């Protein structure tokens, strides 16, 4: 197996019965009297499917959307009250640390919404580089395979190259539909026979033996060295710090700036040729790592379920970009600022497409992912933590503005540009870290560039 995809409730944390009681209270408050055991049999579905299945059993018809929303809200409120009772299952944290230390890629895919899953995820001390897929990010939850397929996509692996670990029959059904090997955990209340009938390859009372035993059995047949776990399970699909440094060096020294410009001198005849050329190499080098070397980083898609996580980072970056423009207005003469605004078609084409595409694939996609995959620690406290690699990539992104000094830019202006560049890079980095969607970073970057050009022309 190339990777592992874990369910959350009942698999890594002992929270199934808290969810059952929360749903029981929510249903009762909305006038639905259901036995606890009937609710338990539906745990593992998404909240929406669970509510519809249970109320259909009582009413024999579809549920009004307003009532369904009230039920989901009441469940979240009741579950929050029971949250102090929730604890990680024995061996879960140690297992995740072992997988991380062995460079075995893993992800978490839960039918719960981020509102209820978020506080539980913090208990597991999850590295910033680990993909998290919640109900908010997919169209259909378990027993449909969307959650596991999205997790595999974020891990950069093909369908069937992962082992799915879950506690419910809904996990096993979804795993089988996605062509993954499913293994069952007996901590959610389902019996071994039920899990086996739903497609589980094997079952255990806790996650650690379930995951580690099949791998170690294969290793022990040929070697007594525990490092064989790493060798067998690690795919060539996760960038690291060495990739990040090498990619940066190639993009900005060996291939960037003037080396290739010399080879093509005289062949470019349209404005912004140098800018397109430099950013082309920013795209080429990460693409070489992704396609040829198969050193992968999350890219994501244009699905709204993924991109909506970029709403807050998008507006944060817009505010910082506007602040940078206001600062420039006080430091640069209006006539010079107007002269810097280029609203020609080649300029807007570059600013609105290629600029963000090249820089984000390099800085966020390869450099940030590579550093986070290697450094594996976060800075901050409580809910306001950021991956160390995210901060380092932002500092590098902003610091490159200091190169403008060599082109005659006044030092004070270059320093201000670098400072705002670091803030913008941090906003883009946090958005990418939270969503694993690189297209959101590209869109945000390009919109900020075009907006700045338009505002510079009218201020």
Give your account of this protein's structure.
It contains 21 helices and ten strands. It is α/β, with parallel strands linked by helices and 459 residues long. The protein has two domains: 1-235, HAD superfamily/HAD-like (Rossmann fold, 3-Layer(aba) Sandwich), CATH 3.40.50; 241-458, no CATH class. The radius of gyration is 25 Å and the shape is elongated. 43% of the residues are buried.
- Poorly predicted segments: 213-236, 254-261
**Measured on Cα atoms, how large is the radius of gyration?**
25 Å
Task: Name the CATH homologous superfamily of the largest domain.
Answer: HAD superfamily/HAD-like
- What spatial form do the alpha-carbon principal axes imply? elongated
Average pLDDT, all residues: 77
By CATH, the architecture of the largest domain is named 3-Layer(aba) Sandwich
How would a crystallographer describe the biggest sheet?
Answer: 6 strands, parallel
CATH topology of the largest domain: Rossmann fold
Strand order of the largest sheet: 5-4-1-6-7-8
């Amino acid at each position: 197996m190339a990777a592992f995809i874990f369910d959350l409730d009942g698999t890594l944390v002992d929270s199934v019965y808290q969810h059952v009681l929360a749903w029981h209270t929510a249903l009762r408050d909305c006038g639905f009297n259901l036995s606890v055991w009937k609710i338990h049999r539906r745990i593992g579905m998404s909240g929406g499917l669970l509510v519809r299945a249970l109320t259909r059993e009582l009413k024999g018809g579809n549920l009004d959307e307003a009532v369904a929303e009230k039920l989901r809200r009441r469940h979240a409120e009741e579950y929050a009250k029971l949250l102090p009772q929730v604890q990680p299952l024995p061996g879960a944290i140690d297992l995740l640390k072992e997988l991380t230390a062995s460079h075995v890629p893993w992800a978490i895919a839960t039918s719960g919404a981020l509102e209820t899953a978020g506080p539980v995820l913090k208990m597991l001390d999850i590295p910033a580089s680990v993909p998290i897929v919640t109900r908010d990010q997919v169209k259909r939850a378990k027993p449909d395979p969307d959650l596991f397929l999205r997790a595999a996509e974020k891990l950069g692996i093909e369908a069937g190259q992962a082992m799915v670990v879950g506690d419910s029959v809904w996990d096993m059904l979804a795993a089988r539909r996605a062509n993954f090997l499913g293994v069952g955990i007996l901590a959610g209340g389902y019996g071994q026979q039920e899990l086996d009938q739903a497609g589980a390859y094997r079952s255990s009372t806790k996650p650690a033996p379930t995951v580690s035993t099949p791998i170690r059995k294969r290793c022990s047949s040929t070697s007594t060295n525990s490092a064989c776990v790493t060798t067998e399970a690690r795919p060539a699909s996760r960038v690291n710090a060495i990739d990040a440094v090498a990619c940066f060096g190639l993009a900005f020294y060996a291939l960037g700036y003037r080396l290739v410009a010399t080879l093509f001198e005289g062949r470019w005849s349209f404005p912004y040729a140098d800018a397109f050329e430099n950013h082309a190499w920013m795209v080429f080098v990460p693409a070489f790592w992704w396609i040829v070397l198969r050193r992968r980083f999350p890219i994501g898609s244009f699905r709204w379920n993924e991109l909506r996580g970029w709403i807050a980072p998008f507006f944060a970056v817009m505010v910082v970009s506007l602040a940078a423009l206001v600062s420039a207005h006080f430091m640069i003469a209006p006539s010079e600022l107007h002269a810097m605004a280029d609203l020609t078609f080649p300029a807007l084409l570059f600013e609105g497409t290629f600029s963000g595409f090249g820089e984000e694939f390099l800085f966020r996609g390869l450099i940030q992912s590579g550093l986070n995959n290697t450094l594996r620690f976060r800075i901050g406290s409580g809910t306001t933590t950021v991956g160390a690699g995210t901060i380092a990539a932002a500092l590098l992104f902003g610091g490159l503005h200091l190169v403008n000094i060599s082109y005659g830019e006044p030092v004070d202006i270059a320093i201000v540009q670098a400072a705002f560049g670091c803030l913008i890079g941090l906003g883009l980095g946090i958005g990418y870290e939270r969503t694993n969607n690189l297209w959101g970073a590209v869109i945000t970057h390009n919109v900020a560039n075009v907006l700045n050009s338009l505002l510079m022309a009218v201020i």
